[in-house]
Amino acid sequence: MTEAKEKLLSTEYPRWRNLLSCALLVLLTTGMVSGWWYAYFTTSDIECHKGILYFSAVWLAVQWVVIGYLCRYQNIPAFARGAIKLLILLGNVWFGLFIFSLQSCAQ
């Protein structure tokens, strides 16, 4: 039990692994939002979703801030670091499911 506790509370994390995982998260999150922006600007009859376009910009900025925090600070315990990464990834899955289920605005 003590070993598991020490492993979960460990803040030792190789710098190269930290940078690699942060870069991968940035690519994945930016790719999701970029996909929506591409669909918005290339598809006709979806102008009514302009609010979601603005929301996606804020969504991306917040994710970049959180990922930057993960990249910059080494004092985050392993369980929290893993939970934050998992939340970012699951949040993007739900964001993608929501965005790409929107219907066109044609009446």
Strand segment tally: 0
End-to-end Cα distance, whole Å, is 61 Å
Given the structure, what is the number of helices? 4
Can you tell me the residue ranges where pLDDT is under 50 for at least 5 consecutive residues? none
Helix content: over 70%
Strand content is under 5%
Radius of gyration: 18 Å
Mean pLDDT: 88
The secondary-structure class comes to mainly alpha
Can you offer a commentary on this structure?
With 107 residues, this protein is mostly helical. Helices cover 76% and strands 0% of the residues. Helix 2 (15-42) packs antiparallel against helix 3 (50-72), helix 2 (15-42) runs parallel beside helix 4 and helix 3 packs antiparallel against helix 4. The chain is elongated. The mean pLDDT is 88. It has helices at residues 2-9, 15-42, 50-72, 78-99. It is built from four helices and no strands.
Give structural attributes.
single chain, mainly alpha, 107 residues
Question: What does this entry show, briefly?
Answer:
With 107 residues, the protein is mainly α. The chain has helices at 2-9, 15-42, 50-72, 78-99. The chain is built from four helices and no strands.
List the helices and strands and how they pair.
Blueprint: H1 2-9, H2 15-42, H3 50-72, H4 78-99
